[in-house]
Amino acid sequence: MKIPVLSNFMFVEPSVSVSVATVVTLILTACLGFAEIIGSNLEYSKFTNSSSSNNIKPSAKQGIKLSSRTGMLIAYTPALLAGIVSFIVFPGDGIRFFLLRSGVTFHFLKRVFEVLYVHKYSANMGLGSILIISTSYFYVATSMIVVQHLSRGLPEPSIDLTYIGLIMFIMGIIGNFYHHNLLSKLRTNNKKEYKIPRGGLLFLGCHIFNLVICPHYLFEIMMFYGFAFISQTSMAFACALSVSCYLISRSHQTRKWYANKFEDFPTSIKCVIPYVF
Q1: Containing domain of residue 163, as a range?
Q2: Percentage helix, strand, coil, to 5, in the chain?
Q3: Which end of the chain has fewer beta carbons closer than 10 Å to its terminal beta carbon, N or C?
């Protein structure tokens, strides 16, 4: 059913199957977010539960483990390939589609670059978590691109958010990379210990790591809403909301982890949204 207010901002649904896929996207990611909140974390970063040197309780989970570098490459490469292949399978279709595909491809290219040259690792990853992350990102990248293609020929939304979305994407990807780089520099001389992050970009005159523990998540959320504004499809907005829910849940557990690990962790530091949460 077409909702007049939403039609000002979004394309109408190209098919019932797309509507169903959009709802499923929201449900599945809500489950992932809830799992993070209750402590059933995907096993990567601080939650691999395999590094005794960081005083992390050994995991009761058994299964195949891969190096974190290999695991993250497996996680991001399929989505990168989806973006690249889309230029071959779906040529043309206008500036909106070009910007969306370019943004998705560049984002996952950046992630692969960070895996190879920026991030430092302290543990292995569970194969199950790797496959969940890889499948999720591949689905997000593919679904946004395919639904955008299926929307060709439909009436354009009366309010064009394409270039607002492009600005949000650029700000998001720069902020995300900058803070990933700062986090990697916390570990010097290949040491595996964790430290409370400091510094970061200025926000209202204050360094952002003094405001939130996960600014890299904040900028990733901004980036995905940039995709949604560029695309203006319900699927892209569903993917942005899904990524937001998961990363906000993850940031909550990350802050809890820091607060438990460091007695001097400042209580004023929020999870991901400055001064709010």
Answers
A1: 15-53+63-261
A2: 60, 5, 35
A3: N
